[in-house]
Amino acid sequence: MKKHFSLADLQSWERFTRANLINTLSGFKSLSLIGTVNGEGVSNLAVFSNIVHLGADPALIGFVNRPLAAAPHTLSNIQKTGFYTVNLVTEAMYKQAHQTSAKYPDGVSEFEMTGLTPEFKEGCLAPFVSESPVQYVLKLEQVIPIELNNTFFVIGSLQSMYFPEELMEEDGFLDLAKAGILTSLGTSGYYKTTKIDNLPYAKVK
Fold it and tell me: What was the pLDDT predicted at 71?
């Protein structure tokens, strides 16, 4: 039997309890590392679990950046260079990915602090994560301030992709479970994935 919890109940709980509940209530999310570089050439790496597909033609992908006081480096670097990488996370690297959420000072590279390997490819200033089997490059298109909570919705256009060819099925479906890509719940829960089905495009019968 389901129990009812009101907004008043939520507001009566301790701050971290409230945050953990709301962060998990919206369900499982993608798990990615965004790679950027600042004006001095120092690489930055940060874990994100709110990256979303916005459209396929043109191919647009967005993410929510926290308030600048809490997370300034990723957005600042993207605005300076215009490009950033997204690197999906596997079981072999999730603890290092989680550690990138620590508040390292500006000028300190999370690659060095976590032991992940920066990988640079021709035509992209921003670093990839070498350990990630699925990587792609985004070009900054728009930053939309969200005044309700001082966050920013960052929209990028897809420029290029890197992944093992055997992950892609005939219809273009990318079976990320084959690559061991994890998903996340809240800000600290990590889960494996298993493919159940790939249904055909739904049509009215």
Answer: 81
